[in-house]
Design a protein that fits this description.
It is built from 15 helices and no strands. It is mainly alpha-helical.
Length: about 325
Amino acid sequence: MGDLGLFLVLLFFAVLFISQALLLPVAGRKAKHGELASRLKQAQKKLDDESLSLLQEYYLKEMTPVERKLIKISLFEKIKKMLDLAGMSISLSKLLGWTFIISVLVGLTSIALGHLWYLTLALFFGVWILVYLYVQSRITKRLQKFEEQFPEGLDIIKRVLQAGQPINQAFREVGEEMPEPLGIEFRKTFNLLNFGYDMRLAILQMVERTPTVSMLAFSSAVILQKETGGNLTENLDKVSKVLRARFKLSRKIKTLSAEARLSSWILVLSPFALYLLTLVINPEQANLLITDPRGISAISFGIISLAIGALWIRKIINIKV
């Protein structure tokens, strides 16, 4: 029973992490471009204490009293920012509460079934890991959709600016014409500007909510124009062309790597499919793998090798643009 429990634990985490390792997003990841990020940090340092307090006040305004206490802890603050990035309407306290209740129920069920303590512990934390991976997948999809919509949003801003309207009106037009997630982010920024917030403050708040390469490039162009002057329409036109070229290249890379990703899925899932096939054709021989200690050792080594191989494949295929 002990060996079988260890086998189930390894199998659970192997399938979990292998599936995540093979999810290869080409676009929609949080930006980590050092040069643009450092430029925005320098712009944030120039904000006075009153502006920074306004930024913090706006961030805390929509939270419940419980959440305001929770985010004082850095771990819960990071989870709250993840929920904002994912665009999920559930509050931090509800997410933590429901996840804890479900993980406890799963743990109690495992105890009732007579599982070993480490299997129960693995299932308890497995619920938290699944919730984390779900939120991460929502973040990736939302940011990817945001980047797909962004060049079209820049075209709207250029048209409004060319018509002689201020940039505040451009943010409003994008917010009204574009669907989520781009539209709602520009509406929030327009509301900040309408309430009298400084342009740099509103832009930095927008970057916090959607930290993509597209957003970093746009915010850098706007802040640079506010500080040094210049033709914003021309700058945004160049940014739009670069972003379209980048997205086109990302799509091309995704297409060219499709065969490699399909091959990786086949290589990783074929051992599990082969075991299920053997279980149907010759159950006695298949059961040896989970009853004989040598079979458990072989499966454990194979699962670890599969996980390492999947991460290796991800490293090779996942090309940053």
